[in-house]
Amino acid sequence: IKALEAKAVAEATASADARYVPSVSLMNSKDPHALLGQVDGLSDLSDYEEKESIYVGRSVPITAGGSLEIPIQVSTPGSVVEYAVENKQYDFGFSITAERDESVTLVKEKTRVDASIDGPITGKFLVGSVPCWIRFKFDNDYSWIREKVVSYKVTVTPPSLDALSAGRRRRAKACLKAVTDDSKSADKRRRAAGDQRTVLETELEELRLELAQKSKSLQAAKDEEKWCTDRLKLRTEQKKLLDNRLENGWEDE
């Protein structure tokens, strides 16, 4: 059974590494080394120890109408998280989520843990991308009167050194493909933007020439308007003087 489990974990790890896609925030980061942190996992394997991390809670109370959340950080890709939850008295809700960067993955949908079931509820899952926060949540929203009690044990088993090294290479290949695809997409967008820029620059130059011509035409219209206004003023004054002479005569007559 252990051999079959190990094989299943190895296959699942390889599949997760092969499907690895960098997060949006990492792809948008201007630091070229930020991406490598998630690909590499641990920065130094010379002091790596394949040591389990165990988190235990015994008879932990859940307030009536409230909830209890157990956050566990996993920093080594390919780690296996195994849990056992035991309910001694009364029912409560239980769910598991995984948080990576800006995304949240539902590992275990919220289910009702029945107190009548003998033995703990167990499960096991693989963590592919890190850093990752695994959140075990116990809800007591089934009751607003009774306080519930839960016991749990969570074991985080990191991969072997060989598996970790192999995982690095698989993630690097998957990441290289993502970077290459994004580079092609960016180059296509750059060329399209360059073509659009050329068209817009040509149109802008045409508009500048048209604007210059319009400005000249505008100035000519203003000059014509002023000349006509001045001439009308002059003719109006002359007409007034002539009308006065014809009506009143000349002073020397």
If you had to describe this structure to a student in words, what would you say it looks like?
The protein is 46% helix and 29% strand. It is an alpha+beta fold and 253 residues long. It has two domains: 1-47 and 160-248, no CATH class; 51-159, GOLD domain (Jelly Rolls), CATH 2.60.120.680. Keywords: Coiled coil. Residues 190-224 form a coiled coil.
> What is the N-to-C order of secondary-structure elements (H for helix, E for strand)?
HHHEEEEEEEEH
Contiguous low-pLDDT stretches (5 residues minimum) are none
Q: Using only CA atoms, what is the Rg? A: 40 Å
- Given helix and strand content, the structural type is alpha+beta
Based on the model shown, name its key terms:
4 helices; Jelly Rolls; alpha+beta; 253 residues; four-stranded antiparallel sheet; GOLD domain-containing protein; coiled coil; elongated
Question: Could you give a quick summary of the protein structure above?
Answer:
The protein is α+β, with helices and mostly antiparallel strands. The protein has helices spanning 2-18, 24-28, 34-40, 161-248, and strands at 53-62, 67-74, 79-89, 92-100, 103-113, 121-127, 132-139, 148-157. The strands form two sheets. A four-stranded antiparallel beta sheet has the order 1-8-3-6.
